[in-house]
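Postdoc handover notes: sequence design on the structure in folder B. Input tokens:
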């Protein structure tokens, strides 16, 4: 309501007949930064990632100074970088530079372009296009430091994004470029990296632009403290100032080999006689990363790739810092489609202590992550790396939710598989697996529950596995012709103990409903019978005479069924089983 009243007052004020002409802009006011969200003149909003506007200057409710027209739809980039300035005495001064553009009007500005309304460009898309068209450089080397905020010129409404240039030493200090789609008479664009102190005192840069640059510098040094650049110098001197390798040296005390000098304006310079050394990037980038919220990984692919690269190249201490940084918002990251992959990769690079720290922050959210489409992958990864005894919290949660319900859940069956594969010998899980095995008859035909039982048959402890066979051997004939349970029947024949395998084979051969011939002709059961014949031909721990007798009994039953039903004998699946039987008999020298 307040904005609406101010809007009406502004219209009434500017609609009056003015007695004397006024300048387009009023006198320059002191810089005022105010955060404004969801204003009616904000054209750059994204529903999933709204911008906060840092308005520089003084504006009326219409969005401009002493002007009834609304804001324009322009966007640009304020690109900053750190470089070293050497002197003849051997000292090195750290200088922050900004990229400025000079065109036909001889006025300096930041790379800026107007929005193409036909394409419906977003603000950051306009800024990226402006960077490429104005400078000829790829925006891939820009690191946007304030992804949720943007500087706004109160006079023109131009949106400026703050970014750090990470293009390396290959970028020149000064170059010229003809703008894209430029007319023949238009002069070429001059671009130059200029120290911020010189830019702020230059009369060729507009007053509001200097105010925006001052505000951008303040925010830049809040995010990135004044530390040496990670880029290589433009020339290779014999001796130069090596960057401080440890980020903490900037905040406390420099190394013994370097002497820190504090200048009058607060800047620092380092003097050293060390030879040239390759700078360490990861100290710088990790320090920058830890000053931001982990939520930046939700919407930025660039940030996710940067974190993965730091995990691969960083030291053990830096990896530990990243682990603890992500744990501050672990739940939202674990439930995100893309960020969950970063959390999973953490376990691949984390030490034992860091992995335990991650597990301690993930397991309290077991029930929520278990039912999450993406969070369940993080939970199962945590179960894989958890130490013995750490999964008790997960087991208690599964018991509260009912283990059969979890085993039959689309994502819960994966949790059971990881528990059985990685914690079968754990004393904490022994009683839990015994309880689970006794309820095998409730889930052996379920489309998800059968996977948990397959893992138990293959990787489970001996006692629990024996209970599964006790429960399911009488049900094997019916399981063999079921779409889901047939896979479990195959696993019982392939992975059981010799005694359990023998009991399963006998149950199939002696089955009456459904009979062995019907199982052999079934589209699912024929695979079970083939595995059974393979077991009879290769299982050395079962006496050979007993295996031969069972193979002859199978042949007799199949021949009898073929004589009774010609349709059954001509079926393709039945014929493939007969071929497998002949190979089995040859292996047994029958």
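Designed sequence:
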């Amino acid at each position: 309501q307040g904005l609406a009243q101010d809007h009406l007052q502004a219209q009434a004020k500017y609609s009056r007949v003015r007695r004397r002409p006024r300048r387009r802009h009023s006198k320059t006011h002191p810089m005022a930064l105010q955060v404004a969200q969801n204003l009616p003149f904000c054209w750059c909003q994204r529903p999933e990632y709204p911008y906060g506007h840092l308005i520089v200057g003084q504006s009326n409710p219409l969005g401009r100074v002493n002007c009834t027209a609304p804001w324009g739809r322009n966007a640009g980039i304020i690109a900053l970088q750190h470089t070293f300035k050497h002197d003849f005495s051997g000292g090195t001064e750290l200088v922050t530079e900004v990229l400025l553009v000079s065109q036909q009007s001889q006025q300096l500005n930041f790379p800026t372009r107007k929005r193409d309304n036909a394409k419906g460009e977003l603000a950051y898309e306009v800024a990226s296009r402006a960077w490429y068209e104005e400078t000829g450089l790829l925006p891939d080397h820009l690191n946007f430091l304030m992804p949720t905020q943007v500087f706004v010129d109160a006079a023109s409404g131009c949106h400026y994004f703050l970014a750090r240039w990470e293009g390396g030493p290959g970028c020149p200090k000064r170059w010229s470029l003809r703008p894209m789609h430029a007319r023949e008479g238009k002069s070429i664009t001059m671009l130059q990296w200029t120290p911020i102190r010189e830019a702020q005192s230059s009369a060729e840069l507009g007053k509001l632009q200097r105010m925006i640059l001052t505000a951008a510098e303040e925010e830049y040094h809040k995010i990135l403290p004044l530390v040496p650049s990670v880029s290589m110098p433009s020339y290779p001197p014999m001796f130069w100032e090596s960057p401080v390798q440890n980020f903490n040296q900037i905040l406390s005390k420099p190394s013994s080999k370097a002497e820190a000098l504090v200048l009058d304006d607060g800047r620092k310079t380092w003097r050293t006689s060390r030879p040239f050394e390759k700078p360490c990037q990861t100290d710088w980038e990790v320090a920058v990363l830890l000053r931001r919220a982990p939520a930046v990984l939700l919407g930025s692919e660039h940030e996710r790739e940067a974190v993965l690269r730091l995990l691969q190249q960083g030291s053990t201490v830096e990896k530990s810092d990243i682990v603890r940084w992500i744990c501050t918002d672990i739940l939202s990251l674990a439930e995100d489609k893309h960020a969950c992959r970063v959390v999973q990769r953490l376990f691949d690079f984390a030490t034992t202590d860091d992995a335990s720290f991650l597990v301690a922050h993930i397991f309290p959210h077991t029930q929520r992550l278990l039912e999450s489409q993406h969070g369940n992958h993080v939970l199962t990864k945590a179960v894989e790396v958890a130490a013995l005894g750490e999964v008790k919290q997960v087991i208690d949660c599964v018991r509260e939710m009912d283990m059969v319900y979890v085993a039959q859940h689309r994502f819960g069956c994966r949790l059971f598989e990881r528990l059985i594969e990685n914690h079968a010998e754990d004393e904490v899980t022994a009683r839990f697996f015994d309880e689970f095995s006794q309820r095998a008859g409730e889930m052996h035909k379920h489309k998800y529950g059968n996977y948990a039982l397959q893992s138990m048959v293959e990787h489970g402890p001996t006692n629990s596995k024996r209970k599964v066979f006790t429960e399911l051997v009488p049900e094997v004939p019916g399981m063999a012709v079921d779409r889901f349970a047939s896979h479990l029947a195959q696993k019982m024949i392939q992975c059981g103990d010799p005694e359990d395998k023998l009991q399963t084979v006998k149950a199939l051969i002696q089955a009456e409903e459904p009979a062995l011939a019907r199982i052999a002709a079934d589209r699912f059961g024929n695979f079970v019978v083939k595995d059974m014949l393979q077991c009879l031909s290769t299982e050395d721990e079962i006496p050979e005479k007993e295996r031969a007798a069972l193979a002859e009994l199978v042949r007799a039953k199949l021949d009898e069924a073929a004589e009774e039903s010609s349709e059954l004998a001509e079926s393709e699946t039945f014929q493939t089983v007969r071929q497998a039987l002949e190979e089995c008999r040859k292996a047994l020298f029958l």
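Context for whoever picks this up: Residues 14-41, 60-68, 180-186, 226-281 have pLDDT under 50 and may be disordered. Don't rerun without checking with the PI first.
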